[in-house]
Amino acid sequence: MITSYIPSRLIDWQKKAGRHNLPWQNTGDAYLVWISEVMLQQTQVKTVIPYFNKFIKTFPNINVLAEAHEDTVMQYWSGLGYYRRAKYLMQSAKIVVKQHHSILPNTVDELVTLPGIGRSTAGAICALAYERPEPILDANVKRVFCRFYAIKDWAGESKTEAKLWDIAKKNLPLQEISTYTQALMDLGATLCKIKEPSCLQCPLEKKCKSYKKNLVGMIPVKKISKAIPTRDSHLLILESKDHILLEKRIQPGVWEGLWSLPEVNKDCYANERVEDLLGESSFKKLREGLSLAIFSHYKMRLHFKHIYLKELTNEKIEKKFRWFDKSLIIHTALPAPVKKLLKNI
Question: Among this protein's residues, is 37 annotated catalytic?
Answer without folding.
Answer: yes
